[in-house]
Amino acid sequence: MEGKTKVNAKPQFRLCKEDGKTGARTGCITTSRGVTAETPFGLVMTRKGLPGYLTMDNLKQINGVKGLHVCASHFFDRSGLGLRDGRPLSEVMGQEEDSPVLVFCGLRDPVRFNLNLYPAVGSGNISVETEAGVTTACQDSYMRFVKEAQPDFCLSLSDDIMNCNGKKRRAKAVKRTSEWLGESLNEFGGSGEELKSVGLIASILATERAEDNLRQAQAAAAASSDPSVVGYAIMGLGLGESEESRRGALLSICGQLSKDKVRYTSGPSTPIDLLRTIECGIDVVDTGFVNELTACGMAMVFPTDREGVPDPEVEDGFNLNLWSDEFIHDQRPLKENCECYTCRNGFSRGYIHHLLECRELLAEVLLEFHNTHHMCSFMKTIRTTIEEGVFSEYTEEFQKSYTINTTS
Amino acid sequence: MALEVPPVPEAKKAKRGDGKWMASGPSNAPLKGGGQQHGKALEFRILAKQGRARASVMRLPHYDCRMPMFMPVGTNGSVKGLTPDQLRRLDCHLVLGNTYHLESRPGADVVEEFGGLHEFSRWDRAMLTDSGGFQMVSLLHLADITEEGVSFQNPTDGQSMMLTPEHSMRIQNKLGADIMMALDDVVSSVNPSLERFEEATYRTTRWFDRCLEAHERPHDQNLFPIVQGGLDYDLRQTSLKQLMERDARIPGYAIGGLAGGEDKESFWNVVDWCTAALPEQKPRYVMGIGYPVDIVVCSALGADMYDCVYPTRTARFGTALVPTGVIRLPLAGMEGDHRPIDEDCECMVCRKYTRSQLHRLVCKDSTGAILVSYHNVHYMMQLMKGIRESIVDQRFPEFVRDFMKKLYPDGAPEWVARALKAADIEL
């Protein structure tokens, strides 16, 4: 368990192709740790650095997983927030040296943290959900964690709030988010060696007020002249706002940001959401909804190539619910011609249904293999359509083929 | 002999979770298949011996198993979250499936539709199924054993159901494992009634005869009988004698009725009597044994095969197996422990993860259970490999002494010393 060679430069983003008709674009992230990630791609959610059910020997078999979203809030123990290992996060997670993936670090768990229940606490503090209950973190403890963890990317803190909050609360949230960005810039600037290989992602808290969005975006764009800043995060989405409002916020914010930095957001909960998000100019998206589908025993089966049509047997066109008795005798793979570990090794719908019924862990392992692969495959097609300049046609066709099932 | 059983319930389609035994066809249908020809579906060859311990190969339809071997239990067709690839990488030769669970859900008929258990669970190496009897007796407190078979009241609807030797064979034939177990009259080894043990001993032989007649696939499935007799020397000898009279039709023997809470002295004695009496050129399977020390002792006494839920079950609770015993990962002290589970272990888990990271994961996240299961299975497989190699290299007694020294630095328990002495190994 000796330390590996230290990396010495921040991740680089290079813009490759812009769609022209929409804000979509392709790009490439490279790190001195040896990761090359073509954007747009989906970030796989983790718990304490590991996906829900896939151990690293399994994860590395999935072609196309480029980044993992690690939440600092998963590393709370009785002494507080901390990794306390002496090794960077990539090693603690057990990453394979020959197939590294990006480590993208934020504080809160965007999928699980229930913003309805817990307000921010006091000035400077931010409430976090841990296994031991809700507690608080602050800029200092978060930065200490980031220094220990040495992720490739680090989100500056943002005071995400539900859309239903009042004007005053929202103004405060925007203010705190901007302050935290300032503090992060100072921290990164003043920390010398400690954060030199970590890229700061400047958080912008999207709100319903266009002026606030613009102001923040402009401030972030200005801040990005600081070499610590490698990209932007548009936070506060997927929290009860309308689709229109989300789109509006994304478009207006992205319009202000410099093109040569990477853009991240979380919030999409369906494949169509995902397309619309990328349309606005996002490069890295959280695909936490995929993890949730797996946990519910669902398999994504919509076509990920351009010629495919939705399977008429599938009720909503998108997902199979493997809990259903209709699969007891079904010997077919989850999806015909799917190249994922589960499908190409002949694991049948009937077997996965059986495993779910027996509460066997292997059910979720096999589903996570399939769903993660499926998402990577989808993102690859998206990138190809952007490269070929047909992204908006693809998106239109895609939306026309499905009855939209918006239960999120 | 006409078998009278309650009428088969109407609904034949497998239903979700209702636990109905699907009587696979009317139980008074003419019984097919005429006995078992030993020799086709199993070949056994001893590679090396030292004392009473043997290193051997057992050729089965799906795989050549090196023995002594430990067989992880994949209750419902999978071993706790580990993929077949991972199991192969861990050097598993054979996985066990539980007939009771599989017949309850999804039902042997459904598994047969899929082409058998191997096809269903995508495991291409060897498999073994038990008879279903043990689970029924231990899981269903309403079970009742008669000469007919094991009858019980279905807890969901109060209907009477029956597991006979014939049913067990039919179910296991559909599942298609390389080795099947005969239905035995299993009595808990702490049952005080000698009469009950006596009844069970004789009945086990009668049921084995019925199993032999009912077994429809002797060419590709091996039927093992189970030696019973409780903890009584005479009853055990009776069981051994009766079963060995049928030796020509028996590819391998199991020693049952242990792993039920009996004292260790009785335990090793029973294994000793059985391995001493059983034919040398047939594999010996001690059922339900999984503690490393028990496996080492039984191997010294001449046993070859073991199964137990212990390594995988205990992994789910965060207990990892190591040469000195166990490491309990949920303990508070593990929080700051940056060592791997075992410094000398070369498995993926020990190479990459510290006790501290595993402490965070176990009991809370599925990956924790999987990682500890992975390590525990690796540990067991390496233990078996160590036993086999040391027999082949003619240094098995040293291996045993070394093993016991690490596990019991202050001296092994009396029963271990006595058992090993019977195997000509001085501690």
From TrEMBL, chain A:
Keyword vocabulary terms for this entry: Cytoplasm, Metal-binding, Transferase, tRNA processing, Zinc
Record-linked InterPro entries: QTRTD1, Queuine_tRNA-ribosyltrfase, TGT-like_sf, tRNA_ribo_trans-like
BP GO terms, sorted: tRNA modification
Cofactor(s) it depends on: Zn(2+)
tRNA-guanine(15) transglycosylase-like domain sequence ranges: 22-402
Main location class: cytoplasm
GO-annotated cellular components: cytoplasm
Highest rank taxon of the organism: Eukaryota
One Pfam family of this chain: TGT
Localization per Swiss-Prot or TrEMBL: Cytoplasm
Binding positions (Zn(2+)): C338, C340, C343, H370
Cofactor binding: number and manner: Binds 1 zinc ion per subunit.
Molecular-function annotations in GO: metal ion binding; tRNA-guanosine(34) queuine transglycosylase activity
HAMAP family xrefs: QTRT2
Family according to the record: Belongs to the queuine tRNA-ribosyltransferase family. QTRT2 subfamily.
Free-text function comment from the UniProt entry: Non-catalytic subunit of the queuine tRNA-ribosyltransferase (TGT) that catalyzes the base-exchange of a guanine (G) residue with queuine (Q) at position 34 (anticodon wobble position) in tRNAs with GU(N) anticodons (tRNA-Asp, -Asn, -His and -Tyr), resulting in the hypermodified nucleoside queuosine (7-(((4,5-cis-dihydroxy-2-cyclopenten-1-yl)amino)methyl)-7-deazaguanosine).
NCBIfam families attached to this UniProt entry: tgt_general
Assembly: Heterodimer of a catalytic subunit and an accessory subunit.
Listed name of the protein: Queuine tRNA-ribosyltransferase accessory subunit 2
Top-level taxonomy: Eukaryota, Viridiplantae, Chlorophyta, Chloropicophyceae, Chloropicales
TrEMBL record, chain B:
Region entry Disordered, spans: 1-36
Domain tRNA-guanine(15) transglycosylase-like: 52-407
Single GO cellular component term: cytosol
EC code(s) of this entry: 2.4.2.64
Protein residues bound to substrate: D130, S131, G132, G133, F134, D184, Q228, G257
UniProt keyword annotation of rRNA-binding present: no
Matches recorded under InterPro entries: TGT, TGT-like_sf, tRNA_ribo_trans-like
One of the protein's GO biological processes: tRNA modification
Residues annotated for Zn(2+) binding in this entry: C345, C347, C350, H375
Required cofactor names: Zn(2+)
Basic and acidic residues bias locations: 10-19
Annotated function: Catalytic subunit of the queuine tRNA-ribosyltransferase (TGT) that catalyzes the base-exchange of a guanine (G) residue with queuine (Q) at position 34 (anticodon wobble position) in tRNAs with GU(N) anticodons (tRNA-Asp, -Asn, -His and -Tyr), resulting in the hypermodified nucleoside queuosine (7-(((4,5-cis-dihydroxy-2-cyclopenten-1-yl)amino)methyl)-7-deazaguanosine). Catalysis occurs through a double-displacement mechanism. The nucleophile active site attacks the C1' of nucleotide 34 to detach the guanine base from the RNA, forming a covalent enzyme-RNA intermediate.
PANTHER family assigned to the protein according to its UniProt record, in alphabetical order: QUEUINE TRNA-RIBOSYLTRANSFERASE CATALYTIC SUBUNIT 1
Family statement: Belongs to the queuine tRNA-ribosyltransferase family.
Subunit and partners: Heterodimer of a catalytic subunit and an accessory subunit.
Protein's name according to its UniProt entry: Queuine tRNA-ribosyltransferase catalytic subunit 1
Species, as recorded: Chloropicon primus
